[in-house]
Amino acid sequence: MPPLLRVEKVTKSFDGFVAVKDFDITVEPGQMACIIGPNGAGKSTTFNLITGHLKPTSGRVFFHDREITGMAPHDVCQMGMGRSFQRTNIFPRLTVFENVQVAVLSHAKQTLNFFTPAKRLLQEETYSLLEDVGLADEAQSVSGTLSYGFQKQLELGIALASDPELLLLDEPTAGMSPQETTNAIDLIGQIARDRGLTLLFTEHDMDVVFSIAEKITVLHQGQVLAVGLPDEVRRNPEVQRVYLGETE
Ligand SMILES: Nc1ncnc2c1ncn2[C@@H]1O[C@H](COP(=O)(O)OP(=O)(O)OP(=O)(O)O)[C@@H](O)[C@H]1O
Ligand SMILES: [Mg+2]
């Protein structure tokens, strides 16, 4: 089976500053792949290059063996690639239900005056997504008042509304307490298994990375420093020198 995602020699410069250089990655269907690297290594930029939020200066991106380089984010999303952002991307004044409903509607390409049975269907879909991400009891809460952990769960619900095959999560546990982190990772793992999702995520917390990642790509100053299984990466002296050493 071909990889679900293949990135070939992608480079991005911002006014001459090279943020990502010759980045390669392949992600197989069903895999839980992780990109790690120090602050400013280029992780979020790489995500934006994959999802179409940024256009590469050079290099190519393939999804399902189809080239998607330079494609608009909503087209990439329609093809089955969902994402969450490092900073939460929710509408703070809408309720939890409304936030997910907007995403469901947008994926279904419905307008707000569609006929009732379809509306009901989408309501059920919205509730079912809220249940999946553990927010059914918070459906009517105003999103901006949620705890940080719940806001991240909401983001996950929004990302799942497009029914993605590949889900990119940019630091899904950033800013969470250790307990929130454990809960979030259990939830993400469970959802990925239930839905047969392929995951590509970035993460600061090394315990999280080594507990769930099946393949790790280490970025350093915009370039791939190492790729491998968690144990290989953990033992890699270069990685220990530039990265793991810094965080311990
Ligand atoms: N739009 C931009 N214009 C100019 N420079 C940028 C832009 N976006 C990112 N950069 C720079 O590119 C580098 C990589 O940034 P990026 O946000 O991808 O890092 P990161 O690995 O996600 O870091 P963090 O761990 O802090 O989230 C940084 O030096 C950043 O300042
Ligand atoms: Mg980042």
TrEMBL record:
It comes from the Bacteria. GO terms for cellular component: plasma membrane. It holds the Pfam family BCA_ABC_TP_C. One of its GO terms (biological process) is L-isoleucine import across plasma membrane. Keywords: ATP-binding, Nucleotide-binding, Transport. SMART domains: AAA (SM00382). This is ABC transporter domain-containing protein. It comes from Entotheonella factor.
